[in-house]
TrEMBL record:
Keywords: DNA-binding, Transcription, Transcription regulation. Residues 36-55 bind DNA. Gene3D superfamilies: Tetracycline Repressor, domain 2. It holds the Pfam family TetR_C_33. PANTHER family: HTH-TYPE TRANSCRIPTIONAL REGULATOR RUTR, HTH-TYPE TRANSCRIPTIONAL REGULATOR RV1816. One of its GO terms (molecular function) is DNA-binding transcription factor activity. The lineage of its organism: Bacteria, Bacillati, Actinomycetota, Actinomycetes, Geodermatophilales. This is Transcriptional regulator, TetR family. The keyword Transcription regulation applies. InterPro entries: Homeodomain-like_sf (IPR009057), HTH-type_TetR-like_transc_reg (IPR050109), HTH_TetR (IPR001647), MT1864/Rv1816-like_C (IPR025996), Tet_transcr_reg_TetR-rel_C_sf (IPR036271). Residues 13-73 form the HTH tetR-type domain.
Length: 243
């Protein structure tokens, strides 16, 4: 009895993988608006009604693809982080930042699904227990854990709680409660500021908003990461990617 059950489970897993792969290709080529379940079903050899045995709705399928993309990105970040030897947190943080930029440049459509507004109104915003939200938290945890490791190894200057605006402080406290790593609020403020620089620059590059000035933003990226490293006291860990 176990054999047929296992075969059915494997066949279902294979079909789910094929459906998600087909949906990713359509999303990359045509965007969320071009995602038609009928076209996905046809590509994987199913009838449209049969597709609903695997995904209850178009929204559920998009959310699953978004989760897959987050997981793919996290796998890439963690692989690059773990390849650093010796595993100095500062080098790992800078390596993860460069890996994030490289993935974004190589996958602009996928980056738009995760970090742009391409999936707005499709992936449920309140689905905090859904696969996309869980995968997003995994992504945030990669950088939060590295920032914590940098701070714990060699604390860098951070603002005191009393120096932060009250409303800002309350929001940081609420955000900190959601992260897998507990850090002082001042560290969270520095973390957020550093993330805005990294994320904002990558977004501008991927979405073409730096073309008015730069054809290649690599040098600007490295300059910004240098400033972040100085703020975190890890200039010695700012190893050039070619070194």
């Amino acid at each position: 009895m176990a054999g047929p059950v296992n075969r059915r489970e494997r066949a279902r897993a294979d079909t789910l993988r094929d459906i998600r792969g087909a949906a990713r290709r359509v999303l990359v080529e045509h965007g969320v608006e071009g995602l038609a379940l009928r076209a996905i079903a046809r590509e994987v050899g199913l009838t449209p009604p049969a597709l609903y045995r695997y995904f209850a709705s178009r929204e559920e399928l998009v959310e699953r693809v978004v989760a897959d993309l987050y997981d793919e990105l996290c796998d890439r970040l963690e692989e690059a982080r773990d390849a650093v030897a010796p595993p100095r947190p500062g080098v790992q943080l800078m390596t993860a930042a460069r890996t994030f930029r490289r993935w974004a440049i190589d996958h602009p459509a996928e980056f738009g699904l995760l970090f742009g507004n391409a999936a707005d109104g499709v992936v449920p915003e309140k689905a905090d227990d859904g696969p996309a939200a869980a995968a997003g938290r995994r992504f945030g945890g990669v950088f939060a854990a590295l920032m914590a490791a940098v701070y714990l190894q060699q604390p860098f200057p951070v603002p005191a709680d009393g120096d932060l605006d009250e409303r800002y402080r309350d929001q940081l406290r609420a955000w900190c409660a959601k992260l897998p790593v507990e850090l002082p609020l001042g560290v969270m403020a520095v973390f957020l500021s550093s993330w805005v620089r990294l994320y904002g620059l990558v977004c501008m590059e991927v979405f073409g908003h730096l073309r008015f000035a730069l054809d290649d933003a690599a040098s600007l990226f490295e300059a910004e990461m240098h400033d972040v490293a100085v703020r975190l006291g890890i200039e010695a860990d700012l190893v050039h990617p070619e070194e």
